[in-house]
Amino acid sequence: MKHSTIPRRALGVAAITTLTAVAAAGCGGGTSSAGDAKTLTYWSMWNQPEPQAKVLQKAADEFEKSTGVHVNIKWVGRKVLTNVSANLNGGSLPDLTDQDAGELMATFGAADAATGLNDVCEATVTGESVKVCDVVPKTLVDRYQTKGGEPMMMPYELISSALWYNGAQLPDVAAKAPTTWSEWKALLDKEKAAGRPPLALDGSEGQYTSYWWTWAAVRHGGPGVALAAVSDKTGKAWDNPDLLAAAQDIESLAKGGYFTPSYNGSKWPAVQTGWANGENKTDFLLMGSWAPSETAPFGAKNPKPFQYRSMPFPQVDNGKGNNATELSLIGFAIPKKAKQPANAKKFIEFFLNKQQLSGISTTALNLTPRSDIEVPAQLADLKKQVAAAGPNVFKSDDGVNAQLPQFTTESYYPTVQKLLLGRLSATDFIQTMKSATIAYWKTQG
Q1: What is the value of pTM for the model shown?
Q2: How many Å apart are CA 53 and CA 71, to the nearest integer?
Q3: DSSP per position, 275-299
Q4: Taking 50 as the threshold, does the pLDDT of residue 48 lie above it?
Q5: Is the pLDDT of residue 13 over 70?
Q6: CA 107: distance to chain centroid?
């Protein structure tokens, strides 16, 4: 997505649609609902072939049958908030949109352009006798607020990441996964000696390489350590020894021959596909919770058909973030200038009904914020990982991309990529990031 927290990943299927300008979305959207209380305009982050889109379309059809309100959905794709942002100061806006919570905050936050959702939080879920924020944890909702202190988004899908592997290929890991860096490295050495380069990575993807750096940084320095470093205008936060230790761990992987030999020139999803179907004989893929649904067609072709299992990124000695896990939210937001905000709120309350929301689990094979919705079998390990972390969570890219998207694209991802590809030593990486951070803040006045 987005550049977005969900880059070009399908979060379910492999269809990636290139959108033409937002002219279609920008012109088509809000006008139809201007004077029609029976219409709701929704610009979605999903592409129409994706399973989430199918779940949402089904809900929209049932919402219309129930309320008489037609949901006019524009399947804009991952660039949806680019379209929204372009129209914030004039032009047509949707009544409802969705994306990663960090992206929503970056789009609406500074301009205070999102409608507060306190009333949605207190509303009764359609068809049930519970309030929305009785089933969607308030701890999630409160992470992203308007300037007035109200929730500015309502989550319907949870995103995390982990080290994915085939339980049929690694039965010993499935029985007892390594928990520490030294235990894990010993396993990697064993696999490498057996002729299996154990780590899969499409090195051309900046955000996918960033997963490795983010996890290592958080394990050593705790949640927020990377964001603190890029936010320090003096650059001194990069002198944190935890960041150097994290970079040294990544350097040891990059220069130790642990990644698939072709990873430094591969284009997504070449290595990821080879991991799933067994062609490149790799064991672990560090990826988001969409990995099983996205790779399932290829995993079925593996000589040992995939049994999707996952393990947390290994803990490190004296790590300040050893018990933390990534947790990102995908959810709805309503622009302040929406023409039909009441209908948008009704749709949110409708979609968060257990029967409607269950499709995110059963069809899209992803996690939901409702604890009473059964978790897909492929995500059972990941659900335990998220539950064990409790409130000790960090955002995608440790919050760097959501806070500083331009810096992320121009400096952060390219530098992290060089570290993962073995083109920068740990020491040079820290110095390069420090210099880039100082240079960036000088341009900000």
Answers
A1: 0.88
A2: 13
A3: HHHSTT---EEEEETTHHHHHHHHH
A4: yes
A5: no
A6: 16
Q: Is the pLDDT of residue 37 over 60?
A: yes
Average pLDDT (97-113) is 93
Domains of the chain: 23-159+328-372 (3.40.190.10), 161-324+397-443 (3.40.190.10)
Q: The tokens 């972390």 sit on which residue?
A: 389
Exposed/middle/buried for residue 428 (C-beta within 10 Å: 0-12, 13-18, 19+): middle
CA nearest 307: which of 319, 317, 315, 295?
Answer: 295
The residue that leads in pLDDT, 102 or 246, is 246
Helices (H) and strands (E) counted in the chain, each on its own, are: 21, 11
Residue 266 to residue 279: CA distance in whole angstroms: 14
Give the pLDDT score at 6: 56
153 bridge partner residues: none
pLDDT digits 0-9 by tens, 393-434: 999 999 998 889 899 999 999 999 999 999 999 999 999 999
Write the CB contacts of 369 (distance below 8 Å, at least 6 apart in sequence). Answer: 135, 136, 137, 140, 155, 156, 157, 158, 329
- Unique residue bearing structure tokens 């220069």: 255
Closest CA to 146 of 175, 111, 173, 179: 111
